[in-house]
Amino acid sequence: MDIPCELLVLADMIVTQDDERRVIENGAVAIHGDTITAVGRRDEIEPTACAERVLDLSGCLLMPGLVNAHCHAAMTLFRGFSEDRSFMDWLANVRTLEKRLTPHLVHVGALLSCAEMLAAGTTCFADMYLLSHEVARAAEIAGMRAVVAEGLLTPPTRTYESLEDAFALMEGLHARYDGHPLIHTAVMPHALYTADAEALRASRDLAEALDVPWMIHAAESAFETDFCLKNHGLRPIPYLDSLDLLTPRAMLVHCAQADEADVELLARRGAGVVHCPESNMKLGNGFAPVPRMLEAGITVALGTDGAASNNDLSLFREMGSAARTQKGNALDPAVLPAQTVLDMATRGGAACLRLPGVGRVEPGSLADLTALDLSSPNLMPLHDPVSLAVYAATGGEVRMTMVGGRVLYLAGQHLTLDMAELAEEAREAVEWAKSAQTC
Q1: Lesser CB count within 10 Å: N end or C end of the chain?
Q2: What is the pTM of this model?
Q3: For residues 98 and 81, what is the distance between their CA atoms, to the nearest angstrom?
């Protein structure tokens, strides 16, 4: 029987990330609508896939689009602004500009992030920020898949005066995008030192009512640990547990300060972790015990955090950093192998964000794909495609990025974004930042 197929994608090699982790040479992917209908060798798929269009990616490695499970998209506006500072000094410095952000600036910053991520093979991202409707609108314009949330802090903030106002804002965002093919929502309190117990518990209840992920920065810094011990007599992760916040719905971002007891507690409760190694290193916050987390059965995803603390949004670079830092920290080269890290950046991210059908190339999955150009000097020779993606690729080798069967980036060109206009907006943002600092 003919395979339903509107678009047939051909590539020299496909890293499927399916349950068997198959790698297919001379491969083909059949796509109908936004869904993959068949994956296999070209000589198996091509004769029975009566495609309306063919995308020939000869010379490329095709793989699932990467899932950035934690970022602050609009913080591209602060890239290079608050450098080489301690965590709380960095945060205070960034907030001087955040107080003066406008909806337009958040939108521009988010569009810049979408452009950067698409050019580096990321097809889906989770975002916590203010004026989150502008982030959602940017992702929708770019054509990316996104999980978006208004960051929750103890009111009042610049976007809401009370918890009731905050939750009304979140519920409105959820209602606006409920059932949307690309945009999803979550509930994301910022941190235990910026949201009190009442806000944290209420946010958990809202996440359960909306049936969406609940995410929070947790165990990120020594400051946070000291704050929690001083004010609550517990370390951050046990404190969250004391409020009944650790559930399978909970995804804790960073956990750079987690100890063995914390890991065991997370595993018992079924909570997940989003690992952001480059941000943790740059801010001097330490190394999350990721190998121990995985050994304990915790689902671990990968995130870049924001460009203000990274300073790039390439998950390919993040994968390399994740693997190398753990090996160096453990003095063991076998720790966190390449396949495990690729799982974190694809399947792990999809699991943490509760997005079935994302993070793998197999029939029934969403057609979110990226392709690496194997003619790039740093991708030669090709011995092991998974190793190549994790240790050698930077994101600059991406030739194509597709979301839901729609090509968004191809051969250095964005097909949904006006990069000349964005470049001008970025230049204007620099002048805004200079003036905002003097106010």
Answers
A1: N
A2: 0.96
A3: 12
